[in-house]
Amino acid sequence: MPLSRNLVENINLAGGSFLGVSRGGPKTSEIVDSIQARRIDMLFVLGGNGTHAGANAIHDECRKRKLKVSVVAVPKTIDNDIPLMDKTFGFDTAVEEAQRAINSAYIEARSAYHGIGLVKLMGRSSGFIAMHASLSSGQVDVCLIPEVSFALDGEYGVLQHLEQLIKNKGFCVVCVAEAAGQVSELTVVLAFAFFRSIYH
Q: Per its UniProt record, what InterPro entries does this chain match (predicted)?
């Protein structure tokens, strides 16, 4: 797609991806065929772990064919889970938006009798968004992330802690990264804990 000044003017105000996106797509050899046919000598690839794995495969294929193509991988993932990178594009925005959800959960939980605000956040394999949003909001009582193991039951379990919070404060807010344990199972257990606290 030829990109002219008129075409890209104010592109930052449009949502989504202007050039298009795909999951999977053509084989690496077909991509390099296209690069070679178009005489491209520099390729910028923006994305996360999967995208970077694809960029590496393209680089390897270019080297195999002895093509002089620079492949530049730019980290862009809201999960902030690319090794050796302090911060990736999109992470700060994700944390800011997560704080809005946490604020809403806090208001709802505080206004309900024995309320539990449960916020599930993105984080397929890491809890960076949940952790940073929880810390910066100051309203989260429990933050569950995949990097730290936890038990639901028992003397030092999450449920025991939630019951104590509800006794002392009357409500609580829980933030969960999607990769922390079985989130769907956790949601059911927390709902059960909420009903148990009402009739206790």
A: ATP_PFK, PFKA, Phosphofructokinase_dom, PKF_sf
Of 20, 45, 75, the one marking the end of a domain is 75
pLDDT in tens, 12-31: 787 667 767 666 678 999 99
Overall number of domains in the chain: 2
The residue annotated as part of the active site, out of 41, 79, 141, 153, is: 79
Q: What is the pTM of this model?
A: 0.73
153 is catalytic: no
Compute the distance between CA of residue 28 and CA of residue 107 in angstroms, rounded to an integer. 50
Q: Is residue 170 left, alpha or beta, with left meaning phi > 0 and alpha meaning psi from -120 to 50?
A: left
* Nearest-angstrom CA–CA distance, 75 and 87: 9
**CA nearest to 133, candidates 187, 175, 104:** 175
**Same domain for 95 and 51:** no
Structure tokens at 152: 């639901």
Mean pLDDT of 161-173: 91
